[in-house]
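Input.
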Amino acid sequence: MNEGKPTKAKWWNRPHPQDPSGAAGTDGSTDGDVELARPASAEGDFELARPASAEGDFELRHPESVPLTEEPDASSPQVPDERPEPLHAPDPFSTPPYGEPGPWASAPPVQQPLPAPSPAPVSTPWQNYDPWAAPAAPLQQTGAAIDGVASRRRRLRRALVGGAVALALLSGGVGGAIGAYLERNGGVGGVQLPQAGKEPVGRAADSVAGIAARALPSVVTLHVTGSEESGTGTGFVLDDLGHILTNNHVVEPAGASGEISVTFNSGDTAKATVVGRDSGYDLAVVKVSGVRGLSPLPLGNSDNVQVGDPVVAIGAPFDLEGTVTSGIISAKSRPITAGDSVDGSDVSYVDALQTDAPINPGNSGGPLLDSRARVIGINSAIRSADDGSDSGGGQAGSIGLGFAIPVNQAKRVAEELINTGKATHPVIGVTLDMDYTGDGARVGTKGSGGSPAVNAGGPGDKAGIKAGDVITEVDGQRVHSGEELIVKTRAHRPGDRLELTVRRDGKELTISLVLGSSDGD
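Output.
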């Protein structure tokens, strides 16, 4: 190859920014039919051009000097230069794309991370980083991948749960502090005490309230006024004709000319008159007239009563009408006497029911009720403790020892008083020695006025009772005194048969007799 005359291509070379001497274009190598050469006499820049008449041949031209090619052949047609005119003035700074191509710059080096010091590589966001590759996922400022939807939801749930727990703890602490403050200081306002709401007014029929609700309309209060004294007592309605049963000692102060006023549970009052009374049984019947809507109390059976049965007493203790108390039957057939007459005419003998239901002065004549609101007794007497005073003007109160006339006895007496105005008494027909201190009831040696102690032709005389006999049992029940014998006898009706155990001359005899009758005068 001759220098400056390539065979197929002719080149004009331009100095390379990194090779000003131009040696990069004269390496003497040939690639196919192309050979690059720079004439020794040429200076300046070269450019690569391709003649229009030749295909595949190139030549190098110098833009500011005479072409270093061979003389063109005269026989070859001349091809005009068809290069387009530039659309702008040359850029003196040679800034692409407006001027000529500027100096070449090498591409930035590819950034590679430093190898991990540990033998087990740790995956980091910058490992195998390629700045020109499209990112596989969005990056955060820290270089970590953005969490997915599920991860964000889990983190949100954890945050909500933690917030709820914190709020609960805070609320509990604040509430406890406020509660402690209010408890110590009585609240922020006025004191308001807790109270139960309204409840149904109805009560069980066998409760004290249920019994009282049924019985109170039939219980009355009696105010008695006499010429010398007055008093207060209780009674209850026997029938719708206006008959009311009470104690004899309640109406006794009225006498023949006194007044008796009856006050009903409704508050209505009416005048009453005595139908009949008996001091031996301490019972009396009065009657009100012109009163409508009376509600009689049902009568029970005192023989069915057992010790321990619950009872309710209603009366007007110390003139407190409509007072209700409750208790139990403490004992049965308890012989008691009441009255202080010298001759014994006003003494009452009662084979009583004993109760611990509180009974006080003013309860006399009131009903003693069973659990079905039926009358089983008439409250008549109490045993009071001695208060140790000498005044004698006070009224004694209940100590839990109250006595009631059994309703079976009261019913018979009330019927006789309503029908005849007086009651009959069962009698043995003997006179008792009330001063006898031994065990039993001894028949006296003489009767009143010097008459025989055993009435001739009476029940005792017919049965074979003798003066001086000691009666120790009645129907198998022990008798310890004359009062007890009278009480046991009064518990029966006239005509009833009794079995008496009699001690005579150190021997015991059994005598059967039929009770006689006395009008009670």
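Confidence is low (pLDDT under 50) at residues 1-20, 22-37, 63-69, 387-394.
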